[in-house]
Fold this protein.
Amino acid sequence: MKNILFILLIIPIIGFSQTEKETIDWINKTLRENQNEFARIGLTTLEENSAPHPNVIVIHGGSFSYSYNFSSNQVSSVKEKRAPAGNYNLMIYFDTSIMSKFHSRNSIGEMEVDSTTFVSDINLVLECDEEDINRLKKAFTHYFNLTGGNINDDLFKN
């Protein structure tokens, strides 16, 4: 009887938790499906020895890229914002400024601009509906909390 009770208590815990890798894979798949035609967006993590900033969000355009390096404990909130065209933006806000690197190449591949600035938020412009943006918001919040963040947004209010 004790074994059956133990199994009944442990199955819900195992069945509903997503690993860090599964969460990143789902986020990247959903970002690919909902990105706009001008930029590809992806979330990656670096090896553990690359601390203190193991998370990288990269936005690639035709001849440019932005990369944002940060740790999950710097994230203060993840919000969705309706864009004027009817699509949605996903905003990631930080407690402190994070490093943003901009790279640009000319038509023959030579580096034209390579600059570093500091920003307090990332605006991911997506072509998605309200359901997808809410799911992405929950997934990013879940990922940041899994990897050391402390975002207290009410994930289930939508």
About this structure: The chain has three helices and six strands.
